[in-house]
Structure to design on (196 residues):
């Protein structure tokens, strides 16, 4: 079973990217499940995804990187047993730290997770301001990622994209970096890399 973790601060484009990748995976014949983590008691993202006829499972009332880590593990095990997905996409809350989520995975004892990929999304239109006030959170999200994804590259000013790239590579120079447009179709090489 493949696991794709899509992290990023609120408004960074997690839901848009998750939907686009889920649709691409389904079009490739993959059986996809999406786990959405909402800190509050009411989920908006999961309702949108369900309207689009995607298989969405939700975790409410806390963050899967800390208070709901056990719920994440049990949800993965239930999905493995009851649904048997090829790909599980996890969209944590905007406050989640991928490293903490990955630390919970050794407690999962279902089918092997043969490919775990973590994306950290960065919105260049707001990153400079957010970085000043949310440095620990944004830094930890980017440090725990395999891929740094600068979203909304078509909506941002070129200098905003440059700043986002500079910040991202300064935080995590080992991660692969890619810029994606908000409205353009995803590059098929990225789809292959992320969802198989």
């Amino acid at each position: 079973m493949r696991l794709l973790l899509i992290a990023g601060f609120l408004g960074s484009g997690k839901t848009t990217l998750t939907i686009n990748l889920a649709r691409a995976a389904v079009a490739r014949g993959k059986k996809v499940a999406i786990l959405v983590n909402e800190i509050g008691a009411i989920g908006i993202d999961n309702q949108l995804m369900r309207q689009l006829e995607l298989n969405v499972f939700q975790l409410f009332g806390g963050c899967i990187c800390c208070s709901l880590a056990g719920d994440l593990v049990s949800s993965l095990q239930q999905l493995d047993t009851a649904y048997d997905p090829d790909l599980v996409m996890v969209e944590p809350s905007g406050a989640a730290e991928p490293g903490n989520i990955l630390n919970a995975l050794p407690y999962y004892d279902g089918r092997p997770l043969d490919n775990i990929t973590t994306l950290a999304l960065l919105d260049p239109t707001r990153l400079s301001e957010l970085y000043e006030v949310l440095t620990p959170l944004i830094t930890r999200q980017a440090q725990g990622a395999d891929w740094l994804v600068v979203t909304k590259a078509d909506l941002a000013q070129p200098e905003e994209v440059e700043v986002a790239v500079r910040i991202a590579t300064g935080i995590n120079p080992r991660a692969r970096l890619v810029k994606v447009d908000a409205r353009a179709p995803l590059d098929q090489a990225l789809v292959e890399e992320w969802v198989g």
Q: What stands out?
A: The longest strand covers residues 115-122.
